[in-house]
Amino acid sequence: MRGRNEGADAHRNGVRPDTLLPITEPPPTRLPSPACCPNCAAPLSAAVPAAAAERGAPLAADTDELLAALRASESRFRAAFADAGIGMLLIDTDDLVIEANPAFAAMLGREVGELVRMHLHEIIDPEDTPRRLYLELVNGKRDRLRVEKQLKHREGREVWSNVTITLVRDAQGKPFYTLAMFEDITERRRLGDRLAYQALHDPLTRLPNRTFFFDRLNAACLPDPQRPGDGAGRRVGVCYVDLDGFAAINDTLGHHIGDQLLSAVAARLERRFVTGEGLLVARLGGDEFAVLVADSEGSEQLTGLAAQLLTLLERPFEVAGHRLAVTASVGVVERPVQGTSPTDLVKDADATLYWSKSDGRARWTLYDRDRGAHQLTRRLLTTALRPALERGEFTVEYQPLVGLADGTVHGAEALVRWRHPRFGTLSPDRFIPLAEESGAIVPLGKWVLEESCRQARGWLAEFPDTEAFVSVNLAARQVWDSDVVADVAQVLERTGLPARLLQLELTESAVLGPSGRPLQALQALADMGVRIAIDDFGTGYSNLAYLSRLPVHALKLDGTFIEGFRDPAPVGRPDLRSRRSEADEQIVGAMVRLAHDLGLTVTAEGIENAAQAERLRLTGCDTAQGWYFARPGEASLVAGILREGRIQLPGSDHPALRP
Predict the structure, then answer these.
(1) Pair 409, 645: CB distance under 8 Å
(2) 553-591 residue pLDDT tens
(3) N or C: the chain end with fewer CB closer than 10 Å?
(4) H/E stretch holding 231
């Protein structure tokens, strides 16, 4: 090892190995030749006498001092090199190891002697960029290089290191050898890898998580640098999956069973759809999963994939002794990369998943642009409902309720309209369901109630003998989300309208639902003197046993029962259409008789011609409304009819409606 150490020391001090001054006791007669100064590379035979002459000191004394300094320098370097806590290498200009310290040998599971004269590439894998930088260093174009490299352990396992390589130059400034220092960062690297994995994977199912999914989706929506100009032809697709009824499993069997089910679903998806083959299976959260198809081949590929998903999940899962059968709903979006964005893609996939749920579940639905535009309009309207009420964009129109016996106007139904600045006048069926979903029906309903009662009070003041009432629709959510009894009482007090001239309409499903709260509110309103009508009777629960116990004053028959009355009563042998017409007439007649027996009045909706009006009159129906009598209009329309005394319909065969 002596010769090897001499070479290392020579490199450390800028002296070439072939001119190394041996670190031994010198012969008494002369210095070894050729020996050079480690600082200036001048021959010691010239430097020492010159230095001695300057000081007037004898030559032998200076030689002893120089040799002692060299020994001390070598000893310090040797101690630092051998005992360093980091790995160190001395490498010559041919990339061969001159010397290695024990710390570096231990990093690779080797002995120090094995590393000497080993080529650098047997220890470190060459890479393009670091190799280029290293060549710049050994050629003298840079003095230091710092890289992170994987080393080759004897047993083949990974060893990661921060490598700092420093160029050592000779006295003339030329590259002489390199000193490499290695800091073992394997554990730090493994920790970083674990943290990176955890950041991109779901801890429960081990699938890629939402962040990973969006990273891949963003990449799939970027132009391919390998194929510039091909952006218009590239396509991307997403299948958005949601388990049906998963919340019920959590609620009944517990969240631990739900978690095990999610893990089983993830395992089945991962086995079937291998990530890396142009597909990515991810868990987006809760019971939602997604399959990303980069470079998709068209919507047929995605819909076929969705069908496979449904079939795959139909097979029951065995979870903790429970045999669980689950179904899934899938939203499918597939489109060209050009002109779309990851945000739009996921938004549309989520909307399509909602369509699958609303269409009956256990199915896939392909995104439809027209349906998407409709959903967007719904969302815009929902957002604008409350501000529109504050801006006064709503108005109330009235449709007369006409007595079939005499043609007089008994009252009018209040129908709210939305004068939307962008979409024009919107009928109630466009926004009332949205208002009920969002809760805006409560303030909107209060406004309609007060506006209608104020108008009815005006009719009463102008036509005190008519006693025309106003009929206002009441949503079930108004009963649940507000104190409707107190609201009605306050409105009647503010407007001065007698309670008997207000009729509130509720649907069967709202009145006859399982809860008792609506019944209590209706009873309180009836006790105040307010009329209660069941709207669209015959389309909801149709629980006739309730009618005798409900505080109801009127039934409004749904328009579907009136469709068979459009033609005059059939004469002669009936055909299929006439038999249906007769059946409708029998049903309506039975409901009218039942209502009258219970002390209720009956109103028919949707009357469009004189034949319907006449046939309904013959069944005993009390009042009717529809375009045949009058379209909904301003309050002045009802006032004009009240002024005339009854509806005037020229050419009508109805005896009560003739002018």
Answers:
(1) no
(2) 999 987 777 777 766 655 555 555 666 677 878 888 888
(3) N
(4) none
Cα(342)–Cα(340) distance, rounded to whole angstroms? 7
Q: Look up residue 654 and give its DSSP letter.
A: -
User: Can you tell me the distance from the alpha carbon of 599 to that of 594, in angstroms, rounded to the nearest whole number?
Assistant: 9
Cis peptide before 34 (omega within 30 of 0): yes
Cβ(112)–Cβ(101) below 8 Å = yes
> Does residue 92 contact residue 179 with C-beta atoms inside 8 Å?
no
Does the CA dihedral 49-53-58-63 come out positive or negative?
negative
Cβ atoms 530, 486 nearer than 8 A: no
Cα gap 516→519, rounded to integer Å: 5
DSSP 119: B
In this structure, the dihedral spanned by the alpha carbons of residues 408, 410, 413 and 419, taken in order and rounded to 10 degrees, is 50
Q: Position of tokens 């501000």?
A: 387
Average pLDDT for the chain: 83
SS (H, E, C) 278-318: CEEEEEEECCEEEEEEECCCCHHHHHHHHHHHHHHHHCCEE
Tokens read off for 640: 């004009």
- The predicted pLDDT at position 273 comes to 85
Using alpha carbons, select from 413, 426, 330, 335 the residue that is nearest to residue 635. Answer: 413
Look up residue 113 and give its amino acid.
G
Q: Where are the alpha helices (DSSP H) in 474-575?
A: 476-481, 484-495, 508-511, 517-528, 544-547
Q: How far apart are CA 530 and CA 541, in angstroms?
A: 23
| 31 contacts 48 by C-beta, under 8 angstroms | yes
Residues 617 and 600: their CA atoms lie apart, in Å, by: 16
For the packed helices 186-200 and 210-220, what is the interaxial angle rounded to 10 degrees? 80
Longest dimension (CA), the chain: 153
Residue 132 confidence (pLDDT) above 60: yes
- Cβ neighbourhood burial of 435 (10 Å; 0-12, 13-18, 19+): buried
Look-up of token digits 């129906």: 621
Q: Which residue has the tokens 């943290």?
A: 195
**CB 160, CB 106: distance < 8 Å:** no
Please name the amino acid found at residue 583.
A
- Judge contact between 100 and 112, C-beta under 8 A: yes
Q: Please, are residues 474 and 521 in contact by the beta-carbon 8 Å criterion?
A: no
Per the CB < 8 A criterion, the answer to whether 508 and 540 are in contact is yes
Task: Please report, to the nearest 10 degrees, the dihedral formed by the alpha carbons of residues 427, 429, 434, 440 taken in order.
Answer: 60
Structure tokens at 493: 């007090």
Residues 143-165 have pLDDT tens digits of 898 988 889 888 888 899 999 99
414, HSE (Cβ side, Cα atoms, 13 Å): 28
CA dist 394 and 391 (Å) reads 8
Q: Count of H helices and E strands in the chain?
A: 23, 21
Q: Token pair of 194, please? A: 């674990």
Alpha carbon distance 239, 307 (integer Å) = 10
222 backbone dihedrals φ, ψ, rounded to 5°: -90, 150
Report phi then psi at 101, rounded to 5. Answer: -95, 165
Tell me the backbone φ, ψ of residue 330, rounded to 5 degrees.
Answer: -130, 130
pLDDT band at 33 (very low <50, low <70, confident <90, very high): very low
The structure's pTM equals 0.64
Q: Give the Cα separation of 59 and 55 in Å (integer).
A: 10
19-33, 125-139, 282-296: which is most confident = 282-296
CA distances from 485 to 207, 307, 476 (A): 54, 52, 13
d(CA 399, CA 478): 23
